[in-house]
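The pair is quoted verbatim below.
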Amino acid sequence: LEACNQIKAFYCEVVNNKIHLKKSQDYYYQVQGALAITKVEWCDFVVWTTKDMHIKRIIFNQSFWNTCYLRLKTVYLSYILLEIIYTMIPIDLEIIQYVHFLLNIEYNQP
């Protein structure tokens, strides 16, 4: 509880005298992603220090995940997938030939 009040960058915050995991922290994104992927409704988030231990139940937030998923999908399709494909393209093939090859479409050169 002390760290939540004293350290601004701490991943928990106190709201109405209760400890909550900040939605702006990486841990919240990680927990929500794990809950979505595993199709689990909640998990217990444990904060341990040498002075105390706190367990906070985190409930899956579908609307938060929907927003994250759309952003992740955009990044994956716009950047990561292209990088993967470009590193697989043999030097002697043009892009269009390779796309046709990947899609198993017959490509007739002029």
